[in-house]
Amino acid sequence: MNLSVVNSTERNISYTQWLCFSINYINGTLVHTFLRHEIFNGNPRYILFVHMVINDMIQLTIAVLLNLTAYIFFKINVSFCCFLLVIAISTTVNTPLNVASMAIERYIAICEPLRHTQICTVRRTYNLIGIIWTLGALPILADVFMLLATEPKEFFRSSIFCSQDMVFRQAVMLKKKNICHAIYLSFVWLILVYTYFRILFAATTMSADASKARNTILLHAAQLLMCMLTYVGPVLNAALLYMFPMNLLEIRFTSYVIIHILPRLGSPIIYGLRDEAFRKYFKLYLLCNVTVTSHHKNMSTIRCVTSPRVKPSL
Q1: pLDDT tens, 267-283?
Q2: CB–CB of 17/240 below 8 Å?
Q3: pTM of the full structure
Q4: What is the pLDDT of residues 77-134, one digit of tens each?
């Protein structure tokens, strides 16, 4: 293999690992902030937000793992590949469903404020998360059962380049995938449009909270557009490869970063840092002060100390 190609591949792997670690560190800090304060973990809005963050962390980790196996091993065992794809595809489908759930919660909070605490309880929120995971896993699990019914046992013991189109390659599976994506995305867009205009009409007669919720719905739409990059990615890659056939590695790496990695950075920026209450506590844990305590000449203890806690202002 050409030395420049090897160097380019190693550099891309290093960039990918660094981006994954950085984004998961930020998202992990968001989860830590959520768990440490009852003002957040007892609020359905923040529960849905942190569920999306955890979902993004899982999706990003699996996507990077798939990318690394493609670079290092090229082919892996089909059974292990199916396991990784089930997680990756389920979490990918979960994201737009979670966005729709967050939009509905904002709609109820603004347009039905007196019933919000009755409808949006913590228990119902966790039940909704269970429904999201069920809907997210159904399409790919159906493909797995279809694969088990149609493929011989030797296929699952063989090695393959791990991608959805390579494993679930039957024409009926490809058609089903496109139909499911169209149904799910149409359903989510319908919810976003409906909640946006209902909140828009409410904003003319209510407080500034309605205007803020309206902007939040617009940000939901922006994130949904980023999610849709996953579905147009293969078409975009094919078009770029047709125009620039000599830049295969650069095109694959760039599209991978834009489609799979950068949208995972959108959640903390769009939601976590916009919220004043969450931002205040998030800063306490994002960076920590490292102190070194010496006990003997050749021994020391390193501790990571966060800023002192501040009582939440309800």
Answers
A1: 666 666 777 777 777 77
A2: no
A3: 0.81
A4: 999 999 999 999 999 889 889 988 988 998 898 888 888 889 999 999 999 999 999 9
